[in-house]
Specification:
Blueprint (H helix, E strand, L loop, with lengths): L21 H32 L3 H37 L1
Helix pairs in contact: 1-2
Length: 94
Amino acid sequence: MNDIRLMDRPEVGTQGIQLGSISDLADVIAKLGHKLNNHLTSVLGYSELLSYEINDPGLKAELGKIVEEAKKASQIVRELCDLVRQPEKAAEAR
């Protein structure tokens, strides 16, 4: 399994995230959101594939809980990304 640590990322460096502006923060949130959604999409995809293999109703119910929680997490990430995009949209409208 891949061990992903934010502080070990080349774009972050050893000093952590250096933000010069709100725009920098928005960029970091957008990048992290994209990466999280990639992983959540994998969880949802593998869960769907697994659901075709499972015949036990109890296990299917448990798998359904995993799917629902992954969908909720994905929605939170989407809302966060939308929130950081709002200032960009307002600036474009001017």
